[in-house]
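2.7 Reproducibility. Because tokenized structures are sensitive to small changes in the input, we list the exact sequence used for DUF2111 domain-containing protein, including any N-terminal residues retained from the expression construct. No trimming or masking was applied before prediction.
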Amino acid sequence: MSEHKLSADSDASDFLPVAMAIHRIIRLPVTARSKNCRGVQIENGHVVNDDYSGPVLEEVIKLNSLLKTSPPDGPYKGVPVIVAPIRDQNGEATGAIGVVDFAGVFDLATLMEHQSAILKQVCGKDPCPLPSELSASKK
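Resulting structure tokens (single pass, no recycling of outputs):
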């Protein structure tokens, strides 16, 4: 019987089955590494890099907490990601696994800012005009 064990010394080959399974489910890029070894980067059903590390993976291992952010550099620079620590029985971070944050790609604030223009374009009018637009239409 085969088994998979992850530890602070796991390498890319140890992470591959788990990372690939997650990738197949969510169909988004997945990265993973252990505390002491570089890991794996998977995109489009293939291993892109089997000697991978990224700034957010490293930060999550250091902080031992989940991060939702956009990396400042690397292949996912500016792309929203979610990275979670992998913890041992004592709660220590022994690694991290991350995915591209599909929901984070859609910036809600920007969508709300453009909602009026989108509705005007689709419906032909703005269902909720701004106060300044109301006073201008009364003149």
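The radius of gyration is 21 Å.
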